[in-house]
Amino acid sequence: MLRYGVIADDLTGACDVGVQFKKYSMETVVLIHSAEIDNLRDIDCNILIIDTESRNVDPETAYRKVRESLRIMIEAGYRLIYKKIDSTMRGNVGAEINAVIEELGVEGVLLAPAFPKNGRVVIDGHLLVNGIPLEETEFARDLLSPVRRSKIVELVRCQTDRKVALIGLRDVRAG
After folding, report:
1. How far apart are alpha carbons 109 and 141 in whole angstroms?
2. Residue 64 CA to chain centroid, in angstroms?
3. pTM, two decimal places
4. Is the pLDDT of residue 35 over 70?
5. What is d(CA 136, CA 57) in angstroms, rounded to the nearest whole number?
6. For residue 112, how many C-alpha atoms fall within 13 Å in the half-sphere facing its CB?
7. pLDDT (tens digit, 9 = 90+) per residue, 128-155?
């Protein structure tokens, strides 16, 4: 059986992604991260989603929860693991990216926070919600996790010491 993992930072996001897999008849399980999650080998599913509930905690806790979730999934045999982030960049995106890079030993990651179906698109590196720059939307006033910028590079750069760069659509299309 092919087994894929997803790590989400909140239950809504975890369920949103789970529904997409379920539409294609894939056996999908959503778990909430806890100290009791230690042996996932007995869970019989194609898609395992762990909700770390890390969006509105301190960066160190978010880092630890994501890194632990990755380690547990890898030990259970999951080889393709997707780290889902909020499409409005709320939360501890930088800390969670650091956890992914350090646990997997990779040099970098690609970050794609758009969700066009819900009006969230990236144009020239700026995240827009229904055509409005992110910092001018209700997400800028989120009580638990406000987002004050729409430029993705700046949003991530203020949460990590790692090199952050924009790969524009023109560059992607050019190969």
Report:
1. 28
2. 14
3. 0.90
4. no
5. 24
6. 8
7. 999 999 999 999 999 999 999 999 999 9
